[in-house]
Structures are given as structure tokens and as C-alpha cells.
Specification:
This protein is an alpha/beta fold. It folds into 2 domains: 207 residues, Rossmann fold; 46 residues, no CATH class. The chain is built from 10 helices and 7 strands. The chain has a 7-stranded parallel β-sheet with strand order 3-2-4-1-5-6-7, sandwiched between helices. α6 links the parallel β6 and β7. The chain starts with 8 loop residues before the first strand and ends with a helix. The structure holds guanosine-5'-triphosphate and magnesium ion. Guanosine-5'-triphosphate (GTP) binds next to α1.
Length: 274
């Protein structure tokens, strides 16, 4: 159906320590058994470069390190033009061109990053644990709306069934505004540590993918994403032009300060012929 190289993107998000990296690692093992090339991009929106927790993840994923059909990369978002999503999109496009499918995106930390991951991913997996303290935090961050699949990981721990029930209750109570999705996010219990439930998770991801394709939603998302990305790129180009013009034209810079007219000055610069 698709006439260009574009990998299917699965985003993993959730509070720190819920087991995202462990889950991804086990999922990679499953995908390799299915003979798929898979790429993992771990993003840390708070870090200017790779390190810390992400470095730990890379070490954990060492067992895939010699496999040419597994690509693992960490990237920080700070210092990237346009933040996480723009940098991630570029990387994903490249990985797709190299034949990696799916591309798995893991984000570290909470906040804006989940929303950015959801904006890039085809399927967003929100990872919780039996301690639904995570859940409450997630709801505050508006995470219910972005989940296509919920995972209650650490199902080997006490309270897993209760957590699933509570989450189900929360989902049925929550009246999620916006366009009807016609997709009811399933809740999958997993134990990444014991490698349990991962096949169910993969099945759910495939089911969501089929849903996107059969409903035409995939094309809608694609158009939306390309438009968003174009707007982001345009903003970066414009920013760059304005900064450069001000740096190269001291008279203009002085006048800006004297008159205090950022809007007018911006328009003037962008109207200039290049
Ligand atoms: N009991 C249990 N522990 C788990 C499971 N999955 C992961 N863990 C442990 O939970 C801790 C955090 O796991 P990570 O995979 O690093 O979690 P993460 O969500 O990637 O964490 P951040 O990247 O820091 O956000 C580790 O000590 C894991 O060994 C599980 O299924 N059961
Ligand atoms: Mg991690």
C-alpha cells in the first residue's frame, strides 16, 4: 500500500522505572525470532547527549549488539533543532529507508515528551505498573488520551490483576474528548522480567496497525505528521534567517532595540528577497 520506505513506529512511554527498556529488549528478541529487522531509538528529552539511564539501557541491550538486523541508538533532544520530534522523525525516515521495520521509540522521563512521542508513533504503548500511583500521574499528564495500548508491566508483582481492573474502570469512566477513535485501547499484562505477555503485546500492536490501515486513519496521520513537520521545519528556517539577518545587519538590530518592534522586524526580514 505504501509507496515509500516508511517504517511502522511503535512508541513506548510511561513513568521512569516502569520497565520500558526491559520490555523493548524482550520485544526485540521476539521480533528477531520472527526475522524482522528492528530499530530502537531511545530518546531522553532532558539530556543534551546520550548518557545516564540511556547508557545503562545500551549496556542491557548488548546481547543484540552484534546482530546487524538490530539497530539501537540513543539520542538527546536538547540542542536538536525543533526538539525531540523533529530529530526523531529524521532518524525514523532514515531507518525506514534502511529497511528497519518496526522502529521502536522509547522515551525517558515524563512531561512533554510523551506527547511528542505520540505525535511521531503510529502505535503508542503506555507502560504502567501494578502500583497505579503511576496511573494517577499519567492521568494528570493527559496520558490516557494518547495510549493506543496499555501495558501493566511487572505482572509478576502483587496487585497486577487489581491494577488491570482499576485501569479498566478508569478507562470506562473517562470521557475522552475529541474525535471518536473507534479503537478501544486494550490492557495487556506483561512481565518483561519473566518474558511473559510479550507475544500478546505484539499481537495488540499488529491489531492496532490493522485498525489504522483499514480505517484509513494511517493516511490521515501521515498527512497530519507531514504538515506538522513542514511547519516545524519552516519555523526553524525562519528563525535561522532572522537571527542571521540581525547578526549581519547592526543597523537593523539597533533599530529593533530603539523601536521595540519584533513583529515588524520579523516580517521585514522574512519579506526580504534572498
Ligand atoms: N519485577 C519486575 N521488575 C521488572 C520488570 N520489568 C522491568 N523490571 C525492573 O524494573 C527496573 C526498571 O526497568 P527499566 O526497563 O530500566 O525501566 P524504564 O521504564 O526503561 O526506566 P527509565 O528508562 O528510567 O524510564 C529494572 O530494575 C528492571 O529490572 C518486570 O516485569 N518485573
Ligand atoms: Mg529506559
Amino acid at each position: 500500500m505504501k509507496d515509500r520506505a516508511q517504517a511502522y513506529v511503535v512508541g513506548f512511554t510511561g513513568a521512569p522505572g516502569t520497565g520500558k527498556s526491559t520490555l523493548v529488549d524482550v520485544l526485540v528478541t521476539l521480533l528477531r525470532k520472527l526475522d524482522r529487522s528492528v530499530a530502537v531509538v531511545a530518546t531522553d528529552p532532558n539530556s543534551p547527549f546520550s548518557g545516564g539511564a540511556i547508557l545503562g539501557d545500551r549496556i542491557r541491550m548488548q546481547r543484540h549488539a552484534l546482530d546487524p538486523k538490530v539497530f539501537i541508538r540513543s539520542m538527546g533532544a536538547r540542542g536538536h533543532l525543533g526538539g525531540l520530534s523533529l530529530a526523531a522523525r529524521e532518524t525514523i525516515r532514515l531507518l525506514g529507508a534502511f529497511g528497519f521495520d518496526p522502529v521502536i521509540l522509547e522515551t525517558v522521563g515524563v512531561g512533554q515528551s510523551e506527547l511528542e512521542v505520540a505525535a511521531v508513533a503510529d502505535t503508542t504503548v503506555v507502560v504502567l505498573t501494578p502500583n497505579l500511583g503511576d496511573g494517577v500521574q499519567m492521568i494528570k499528564a493527559g496520558i490516557l488520551e494518547i495510549a493506543d495500548i496499555f501495558v501493566v508491566n511487572k505482572a509478576d508483582l502483587e496487585g497486577s490483576n487489581r491494577a488491570v481492573t482499576e485501569l479498566r474502570g478508569m478507562l470506562s469512566l473517562s470521557n475522552i474528548p475529541g474525535a471518536p477513535k473507534q479503537w478501544k485501547p486494550p490492557i495487556i499484562a506483561t512481565s518483561a522480567a519473566r518474558q511473559e505477555g510479550i507475544d500478546k503485546l505484539w499481537e495488540a500492536i499488529l491489531a492496532h496497525r490493522r485498525h489504522l490501515e483499514s480505517s484509513g486513519r494511517d493516511q490521515e496521520l501521515e498527512r497530519q505528521r507531514l504538515e506538522d513537520e513542514t511547519a516545524e521545519v519552516a519555523a526553524e528556517i525562519a528563525r535561522d534567517r532572522v537571527r542571521r539577518a540581525l547578526a549581519e545587519d547592526p543597523t537593523l538590530a539597533k533599530r529593533l532595540v530603539a523601536e521595540g518592534t519584533p513583529y515588524g522586524t520579523a516580517e521585514e526580514i522574512l519579506d526580504r528577497k534572498r
